[in-house]
Structures are given as C-alpha cells and as structure tokens.
User: Fold Pentatricopeptide repeat-containing protein from Thalictrum thalictroides.
Amino acid sequence: MPDVVCYTVMITGYVVANELEKAQAMFDEMIINGQLPNVFTYNAMISGLCGAKKFGEARSVLWDMESRGCKPNFVVYSTLVENLRKARKFPMAREIMREMEARGLYHCVDLLAKYRYRRR
Assistant:
C-alpha cells in the first residue's frame, strides 16, 4: 500500500496535469486507506482547487486539514491568499490573512505588503 509520500507525489502530479478529479479521488483513497495527509498533501490540493477557481472548496480543505490535526503553515496560507488575490477575492483573502496573524504566523508581513501594494 502506498504511504503518504507516494500519495502526495501522485496527487501533486494530477494537480500539475490539471486533473483535479483524479487528485481528489487519490486524496479520498488515501484517507480511506488510513494514510493521513500531511501539510504537503493539503497544499497540493489547495493549490489545485485554487487553480480551478474553487476557492470555497479550497477553504474547506483548510478546515479539514485543521480538523484532522494537521497544522497549516505559512506556505499553505500564502498559497491560498495569493490565489485569492489573483482572482480579486479580496474579502476572503483578508479573512485568511487575519487568521494567519491570529495564529502567530508573523511572516505574513511580506504577504500583506504584496497584497496592499498590488491592490492599489
């Protein structure tokens, strides 16, 4: 049976190939087979969902990540915020950035600076 690294590589490959349905199926299979996704797995799924403009689903994946005890890091948050910014989903981007700050991810100062600069 594949381990978390194998699943993550396969999911990332599907995301890069723009085959989100296959990535989601692999993600679901992973969980069914008792392999818990890690931060890299979740980031790949969030990136893929954002690329497909499925921002609500990407946000749900972030919540799922937290509910399974996998703590989102700066990379996960910045992937989501940057994609939201590019799609001009500013209220949701601000909400995510406030969440980052509340969690003590102070590296977001650079991200905030980019966000504010590009918004003008």
Remarks:
- The domain at 4-119 is CATH 1.25.40.10 (Serine Threonine Protein Phosphatase 5, Tetratricopeptide repeat).
- Residues 32 and 69 are 17 Å apart (CA to CA).
- The chain has one domain: 4-119.
- DSSP finds seven helices and no strands in the chain.
